[in-house]
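Study this chain:
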Amino acid sequence: MTAHTATRPALRAGAMWPTPPGALHVRPLPRESTASYLTRLAAAYHLSPAQLLDGLHITATGTSTGPPATEIHLSNEATRRLSHFTRIPPAHLARALPRRPPPAAIGMAHAATARWQPVQPALQPLPACTACTIRCSPHQAVPAWIHPAPDLPRIMICTHHQQASSDPRHPAPLGIRSVPELTRARLRARRRPTAASLSWASTITTRWYDHHQHLHERWHTRLNRLTAANPHIPPQARPPPR
């Protein structure tokens, strides 16, 4: 037995980690789900997330259906290996990716392990702005999924690229260039939106709907513009023919 072959069991057992840093630089988006970032990173190398984890010698359990329906939790050692491969310091990854408490069996593990877990629909991330995503993953155009900021309404509006999303069932954000008043309202807002302000806005617009029938035509016009500009909207979400 040669010295080279004798070291293989030790490498497989994790005594040494031989995987070098990756050649491609894929940055996470702010508040991007870990599953989304892992999927984009793997796609840059034309791999599946499972193949990438295997190449990093990370043992994964659970079933993945892909973001936004599933999330992956990494042990500290798995996070260290991901940081080394991406050449992104652990502190930078921690600031970008949401830090949700992992299962005890994962968070306390010393080995490089990971676990896929389903995410409740109300907590699933939203499709990120496609232009912002391309800037962070120029090697492969793969959708990204981000979590809204804590304690804020579940909505994402990129005023620079005029895209918005509020429903994880949509495969991509909505282009809102056809309704520029949405962007203007966001830019003119003096305060950041909150759950309370969104509730008040919903109450006010509902009252408008009930007592100002002349606004219906304006709202239907906006909805028709949105659906015409976004063919990916599911049929059930489109306005009925008039």
